[in-house]
């Protein structure tokens, strides 16, 4: 329990095994560093198994196929899968999230692990399918400077909605409004009352709340939801460091009072929407309609510190680790602006 520290991690060396029939060997290029992994480091029930002591830290990886005994993957292809912090991965058929990635020459690899990858897909699917977003909605996006929230707020803006984001610092508030185009931001660490701030920004109520955090923010939002409002639940990061003693919700009865649809979701289960989401996100990033924010560390040894920064709220955008500095990032790239 508690915030992870560097001493919780160690690096081990192992020999890459020979491939069995159907397996693929990836040379990993980029790791996604995700807060949901924190929930797997405690022995509590989650949607993926808990990590045993001494186990590989799980994460989504993007790698280049260097050997294949699987006809669906050729050497030189790029593959994405939920594996772990390692330089090479042996992927078996049926591995979680294992898929070919069509890497375009006009986008950096890191984009496929952030705004054009599962963070962006999660925001897109969560809003479109589970949030049933409509033009004119009043939308509140929690963790608005984070990997999912920063993309989700922009998708809501592009969908014709008014969007307010919750953030944890004035720097993040500035980025969310001035760079990402949100209509307003609420710094929950620097306001007298979160309840009052939400009421001030939504005097007529909230149509759609995208929940990345749970905890006190969710509790403050519930009384401000409009009748038949929608809450897609993506994450509960407020409780991840303290899962044995989660925040006690006082206002959950508002789900009944306002007939709220509140639903947890996993984006990879919306298989029929994946191509639509990937295409839309890549097009928006290419044309500059969607600003992809990321913070990138370099080298396997950098992964623990990147994870700690993420879990202590120090990061903005998608937290990533590239295995070496030959991997291009969005900082090296310029979008094709409209007009």
Automatic annotation (TrEMBL):
UniProt domain Enoyl reductase (ER): residue ranges: 4-321
Keyword annotations: Oxidoreductase
The organism's place on the tree of life at top rank: Bacteria
SMART domains registered for this protein in UniProt: PKS_ER
Single annotated GO MF: oxidoreductase activity, acting on the CH-CH group of donors, NAD or NADP as acceptor
SUPFAM superfamilies: GroES-like, NAD(P)-binding Rossmann-fold domains
Alphabetical list of Pfam families matching this protein: ADH_N_2, ADH_zinc_N
InterPro entries: ADH-like_C, ADH_N_2, ER, GroES-like_sf, MDR_fam, NAD(P)-bd_dom_sf
Protein name listed in UniProt: Enoyl reductase (ER) domain-containing protein
